[in-house]
Amino acid sequence: MSLQLAVTRAGTVDEYDVDGAVYVGRAADNHIVLDGPAVSRRHARFDRAGDDVRVVDLGSANGTTVNGREIEPRAITPLTAGDVVAIGGFTIRAVEPRPGSATVVLAPGAGGMARAGQKAHPWLEVTTPAGTIRYRLADDVVHIGRSSDNEMVIPEPVVSKRHAVVRRSGDTHLFEDLGSANGTYLGDERIRLRQLVDGDSLSIGETVTVVFRAEDAEAPPVAGASGVIAPSDHALLVGRDADCDIVLDHPAISRKHARLGSPAKDGSRLIEDLGSANGTFVEGNQVMPGAPAVAAPGSSVRVGPLTLEVQAGGWFRDPDVGLSLTGAALRQEAGKGVTLLQDISLDVRPREFIAIVGVSGAGKTTLLKALAGMKRPSGGRVLIDGVDLYSHPEAFRSMVGFVPQDDILHKELPVRKALEYTASLRLPEDTSRAERAARVASVITALGLDDRTEVPSSKLSGGQRKRVSIAAELLTRPGLFFLDEATSGLDPGTEGQLMRQLRQLADDGHTVVLITHATKNVMMCDKVAFLARGGYLVFYGPPEDALVHFGVEDFDGIYDRLEGEMTPEAWAAQYLESPAFAAFSRPAIERSAEAAATGSAVERRRGASWIRQFWVLSERYLDIVRRDRLNFAILALIAPVIGMIFLVAWPRDVLDYQSGDPSRAFVMAFLVSLMPFIIGAVSATREIVKEAPVYLRERAVSLRVGPYVGSKVAVVAVLSLWHALALTVFWALGIDFPGADFADYLKVYVSVFLVLLSGSVLGLLISAISPREEQAILFAIGLIIVQIVFSGGILPLGDTGIAGKVIGSATSTNWGFRAVMASTGIDGSECEGESLTGCALPGFGDFDTEEKRQVAVKPLEDRYGEVWAPDLAVTWGAMLAIIVVVIGGTYVVQRRKDPR
Known about the structure:
Number of helices: 22
Number of domains: 5
Structural class: alpha+beta
Largest sheet: 11 strands, mixed
Radius of gyration: 36 Å
Helix content: 25-40%
Shape: elongated
Low-confidence stretches: 109-119, 216-226, 598-605
Distance between the termini: 64 Å
Oligomer: single chain
């Protein structure tokens, strides 16, 4: 006897026949809808083989159990009478049919609620001055109001933001006015609560009429969905603010984002961007502030990450952030005849979870970056919702999340603080502190990190760090989510947990594409793309179909066959003839052919202003420095410790005209210029290279190069102020400056500060150039050696030739040496010629004859003659010029890191 399914929901039991495939999940297009947070959108499938009923878990986030035992994803499990299937807190029992029992006739999208002989869903007919729209009451609860977070949106001024609600109770519908400002009337009677009957005509003000229909209509009503917006004949303000006509509750939407103009006679509307953070786009083309664009009926208007479609009867808002992704004939060439991707085509539908697997060197990361918009392929196209990604990168920048192999948060910062800084950079500038905090708390909870919020990332496990990186990307609720080797290095238990969370992200509306070497949990994915060595796509489709395609029992067997049998070219050719190619790759090629021709990319726009990014980045940098206690202690103490050398290295009167020592004075001036330079260069050498993955990811989303480099310079300048103060104070304590006043000490301080700052910015430039921290240290050592040799303090610049003089003129230590001499009164400008009576070098007052002065000055002139007559203003100007040029060079280097 054929088994049936008895589904228990809210204390009631419904029985269903299994006639063909029966899908169960949270989404409304399933045959049996189970509305629970632990239920995936497409959770499981029941089907029949003869008289037997079978269940298959479709890679759900929280799994499916049969009689308390979890079943493997994608594996067929036969059921017998009495077996209990548990799905997200709901129970489905396999039962034998009872004589005379009523069973539910299943139809996708009906939510499993339509019994045999039951009438179709009632509907509301809403009329405004702009027209009429029908809305089917498919849900148990339907809110009506002006705000777009209602299921039925009526953007008319007389309608309150949350005006009323319609609740289904059995076969009846109850209308309740929620205390609206203008009320709801049935005839002349203002109503608060009413059980609706067919033909009830409710009025709101003088412009809006809502008619309830309990029977079917000639014209098919609009399906119940959160995207329906009633017609409006006036301009509509769109944004995150509650006062907008269309409220779009999404973190990437600005408070006042865009204005949709009144409809013209042909139904078109003028679309105006109001200076939003993430832009407004009509058919993929960006609408710049002050330059409105026309949207014809049927046009797609993208406001940040959400889409509004212009319809004859009004607007339709796609409530889902999930995006479709198409890669068509993707080819990537690396030069010298090397091809990394071989004309790969794949079609990804919204809310799908896709795994890209294959052997090392198969081009997985290359494919992922091409699909994510991070590296333009040599050939082929990438489409998001039918729009060319590389022609309109700004249209999708806020909608794409990418988690690279490396962690993309600073290890010194606690989880919550790191995410707060990221939110400040990525969310629109008009997002309040409370809104940012709420968004951070939301992603922390979603990824199970509530008990780790105050723990620095450096103390988290590998799986937890990966979840924090995912949380950073989820802050803007991207529709597309890419992860490169997210499970690499994780233990099996942690890997499985992370894969379930990614499955849940897909169920929650994100489209997720993942690279993984581990195949144990691939069955949780909707589709899997297998790449063979050389960049050949050898299969793309459901994971269970991959086993059939390759004729193996597990995924390890696929690797064995790919490596041990035919060539990659042969495997790819076999796939081209397979049903999987026709079903999942050929549509990508067809979509690409149908899509509009590519256009030109628009100017890059960023989420937050230059000033805001500068302050956030500076605050974060200082916070990182402060939290790394050992490094902070070294930075704070290195200058005072080195300054103590001044207390013992030279006699106090080394600069005295009578008793001083000119040779030691020159050496002292040289070391006083060299030490600050070394302190600055070494302390800044790691500051950019150590956070390269963080920078590249933030740059791809919203980061400007100017504020980033500026924040680094600002913080090292603050440190240089402290270091210069400590060195100057200790020098003043250890050395007598004859006749010096406050202005003279200030000159010394400025000279030391400029040397420190020039060393620091050169350290930043080295850090920007260096691929790794180890190489940065080596580059810094080489730079210091050059600065020493061509400073004029070790070798006479006159002995180094023209090249040496040119190099010397570009070295900070050369100009720093001169500045220190000038600020301390070591001046040899009067120490040339036959008469040296005006020579005021230290110790020269002790020479009572011209002959002794000539003998004493000769070796000094030979060694320091190129630098011993400095002009303080010129030396400061030269160092400032070097600082500006080096900062500019750092900017250029960082800018050149952008993907091309």
